[in-house]
Amino acid sequence: MKYLKLFEDYLNEVGDLSAGNYPVTGPLFDAGGTRYCKYIFKTDSGLEYTVVFYVRRGAVVECWFEVRDEGDDKIRPQHLTTDKGELYKIMGTIVPIVNHYLTAKGVGTPYGLNSAFTPKDIHAPEAEELVIEPSKEKKRVGRGYGDDIKSDKRREKLYVTYLKKQGYKTRMAGDTISVDIKKYKNVYESVLNESKVSYSAVVLDKKSKEKLLNMGNMQDGWEPAATHMTINTGELTDPSMKGKTIKLEVIEAAENDQVVAAKVTILDPTLQVRNRIPHIVIALNKKNGGKLSMGKSLEGWVKVRSIILSGEVKEIPV
User: What's the whole-model pTM score?
Assistant: First the structure.
């Protein structure tokens, strides 16, 4: 049990991709037939790895790895393959290849295909499941090898650990690792969007929003806004401002038949705002084409009674 525990600790440490990766050629469509899509890379020791995606029946894509010695076309049996001290970097190349196959858009653009297509969309558009069947060590029989050692789970645990740490929700069916492609792509797109910042803003607290809305009467057909003051598009130029409470003072107001807004001054000199006219849209008439972005184009600003507002600096995701 001591050695099993050591192996589990080892897996927890190597499941990330910090070891880097090798240069990759691919995707290579129809390499070996229409059911195949391949990626190829070579390790520092000269081993050539081919990562193969193969369309099986039943909306399934199978993934396996072929290894050849440098200058030799013969595939090396998987149970004989040694990592030659390159395991971390090999896995750090294979897992991103799987991710590229499932999620990389634009690979078909040079061929006149839809720019939203991924390698998987081009190669196996109907596939819903990706499966990997890790090889096992074999029993020694004289000078050769016999049947698989059924209890050997090392490669299986290694692959599952790497895949899980990169966001894949795997399940086991016997000795086969299975990934639901649609679920993974949904999670991937969600994380991708969360990691992108649309704009940064001072988001008003509840009391400040009520103060703004009480400046006047809401007209029929208009909708309340009074949510935020935009600082700039994208991420904050000064990340240390994130989460900071900022005081704002309402000094003027303006309106047209689409939006009503309040011009503000920032009562904290440490906050740098790129917006030419710092303002907050109070309400908009969507039926008449009103949009939040129209507040910056208002003219005819007039002075109003001073109102002090408060809000938190936030980055708003896409």
Answer: 0.54
